[in-house]
Amino acid sequence: MTDPTGRTRLLGVVGDPVAQVRAPELWGTVFRELGVDAVCVPFHVRPTDLEAFLDGARRWRNLDGLLITVPHKAAAMRFATELSDRARQVGAVNCLKVGESGGWVADMLDGVGFVTAFEGGIGPVGGRRALVVGCGGAGSAIALALADAGASAVDVSDVDGARANELADRVSATGVLSRPVAALGRGYDLIVNASPAGMRSTDPLPVDLDGVGPDAAVADVITEPAVTPLIREATQRGCAVQIGSQMTDAQVGGMADFFGYAAAFAEPLR
Amino acid sequence: MTDPTGRTRLLGVVGDPVAQVRAPELWGTVFRELGVDAVCVPFHVRPTDLEAFLDGARRWRNLDGLLITVPHKAAAMRFATELSDRARQVGAVNCLKVGESGGWVADMLDGVGFVTAFEGGIGPVGGRRALVVGCGGAGSAIALALADAGASAVDVSDVDGARANELADRVSATGVLSRPVAALGRGYDLIVNASPAGMRSTDPLPVDLDGVGPDAAVADVITEPAVTPLIREATQRGCAVQIGSQMTDAQVGGMADFFGYAAAFAEPLR
User: Fold this and answer.
1) What is the ipTM of this complex?
2) Partner of A123 at 20 to 30 A CA spacing, among A257, B19, B97, B131?
């Protein structure tokens, strides 16, 4: 890209930490392809500072929107005045823009991004028995999107048992079988890590792959490292795998629509 | 430049409007030369939103600082917890950074930038009879810096007569003759426009150049258009001229010091 100018529009990405995010490069490429004069800017904001950050950002006249990442996805929802149904169902958001009233409009695309990537790369979700490990914003979005896409069961696991119970109840309410379970992969066709375990090299595997064979697919939402120990282990077992950046990349079309960058992409998200 | 990444540090430039600012390109070049992974980002912020903007920005963990431009230079001073002597004297600031206490530290480099550019490009300020038109943040900084650099007199003019009176008093207090006057250039060796007149093509000339000859130097602080009608008229009269971007460019070294980007530049500001 060339340097920004005074006319360049802003797309922020907000996280804590933020050094690991890929959004600035990913959106830099998108902006060049679309011919949009905008730059994706990282903002490192602590959880206690999120409210003041959003109160300030709402007033930037040259802001197109914000991408929300860990650990702010659930907290950011509280500041939205307009929510998509899926964001309300998930209880978390990953994109914000300022609406006509001056308040935040929010959506949550992690779930549809995950399913879009999976069905484009590995195959249909329909009929699979899924296990989602990690019941935060991304995990909740993925579990609910897998249920919506026809998974036969979506079990969920979290180190915080109450959080797993609560998500299992929400998935069950959609009519798809869901139980809070331990993080044991045996018996599932689709195993998803949506917990932070794997970001640090000293982390244990987020899910036990004992007994998991090549018929199962294994996915991770972590983007740094690109290939986590879980993905490496799954590859050795012959499983089809999906890495975190694939979920992120698959959200670009939907986000470009949300932020108003492009009326239509080649493969719009649902 | 390459696209920003999640690790890229931020230098903001805050104005209303902001489309005309040259800082993003200027600092983009500086960052490349210094090998600093940072990006200068424009923020369009209305005066009524400045407080909330600064309250949010103070919390960005990857912020190196903010450049403050029209119309926020005087207002931003109110939010600084630590001020340089010259900023206090001028009553306005043009750069902010977060200090160790978490509050804003502020300085005002417009005046020294103006004098540095002038003495490097046109000649000594010492002994000149100066007229400064426009008594806002930039005009105040320039008037006081000209007095400090040895001008024999620094008269000031503003459409708001009370503002001109007040600045004349502050310049006089430094021991240099200063009177509030009409915007008539005749009889001065150094004529500076520090008012916004000239940003729009329909603006009248900010100062009457009738009787001004080639011995006088004429300067403008406006950066867009690069060459204002005043500068064009002065050039036709054979005057030496200084355009707005020269004042801006001459502040880069001092600002790089202020923001901690470089221990030393080839020609550090005083």
Assistant:
1) 0.84
2) A257
